[in-house]
Design a protein that fits this description.
Blueprint (H helix, E strand, L loop, with lengths): L1 H17 L3 H4 L7 H21 L5 H4 L11
Helix pairs in contact: 1-3
Length: about 70
Amino acid sequence: MQEAEALLQRLLEELLETGGSVEVVCAAHPELIPEVRRRLALVRGVQAQMDALFPPPTPDTESGSNGNASKPD
């Protein structure tokens, strides 16, 4: 059972790192496709929640400029 869990985690990590398709990543283990899809949906849901709470930097926020910086006199 732990081996199956480890395999699922590896497949999910590969998907997240490569951006590949579930079918390609799971080609050697097609029986795991439904579970990998389910877990991928969970991860993407968490990522969306994190992005909502902590938006990724934009060019404006990366430079530290938020339009409220004090200007020299």
